Amino acid sequence: MPGVRTDPSRAPVAFGRRAVPQLFEQLQQPETDGRLRALASLCDLVHDPERLQQTVNGGFVEQLKVLLQDEDPSVRARTCELLHLLINHSSGRQALLSSSLLPPLSQLLDDSSSSCRTSVHRVLNRLALLPAGAEALLVLVPKLILKLREEQEEQEVEEEEVLLLSTLSRCSRLDALPALASDGVSLLGHKLSHHSTNIRREAAAAMMALSVPEDGKQQVCEEGLLPVLVGLLQDEDVEVQANAAGVIMYTVIITAGKQQCLDLDVVPVLLNLVTKKEEEEDEKERKALIIYSLRALTSLAEAPDGRRLLLQQLPLLVRRSEAAEKDQDIRRAAQTAIRVITWTP
């Protein structure tokens, strides 16, 4: 009878509920290869919801702390991969938040292994999807900002930087002050002109979160970022355009933002975005862009020069409000803009 073929990269898995405890026991063996095989088998096993729950509820998550500090980068990276799989489930995210793993995870942001750093960023980014996770990660925002200062010219670290920016954006939507206090606006401003569309998109999204508070609006103006943002309104990527429009929408609330945007002749650009004809299937992707642009125009209409320009183009907005009947959000935003533009004391 031929023997059963086994995968040499994975540890043998016991039957039933004994599988998870046995593999965690094998994680304590001194041989690196043995720990890696046990981790590989656990990564396979936790795709099963029952085994995932057993791992989370059995108190095994805390045992991964030692592996995050393992001397072998492959073990550290594989442990982060296992954590990423665990936090795909709400109970796994809660277990991680309740554990003592966040400090050793944050230390791995400076790991010498790029694969390990990327794995850590995947874990943190997934965790930041939850409000509780984003709140727990707020203490890491200064460290994330510090990472932006480092030159990352190698192509293979683009994913790492995109994940970092995305995590920073999610945390800053909850509370923008830590990033603002860490020179976040200036550092993100350098990423707005990056050759990577993904990095421009995430940098503009993070900048939009930072432009919500008054201090953020002032910093966007003081750092001279509005010319770059106005340029991004014509980016090839719709999400980049929408995020840039969102920053402008918030910044033109203050007088300095209004004046700088009017000096940059942004009104025709925003009007073009609002009235541009697109295929119906693209309308959902453009909805945020249209609404942000309409709200920016509404704020610009509060300035005498802005109102004068917009009164000349009022028929365009009227047509937009009538054509947007199928989308009530766009229709209301257009009608609000028209009311502000035509308001008389």
Automatic annotation (TrEMBL):
InterPro entries named among the record's database cross-references: ARM-like, ARM-type_fold, Armadillo, RSP14
Segments passing through the bilayer: none
Start and stop residues of the ARM repeats: 224-248
Pfam families in the cross-refs: Arm (PF00514)
Domain of life where this protein originates: Eukaryota
Record-given protein name: Radial spoke head 14 homolog
Species of origin: Anabas testudineus
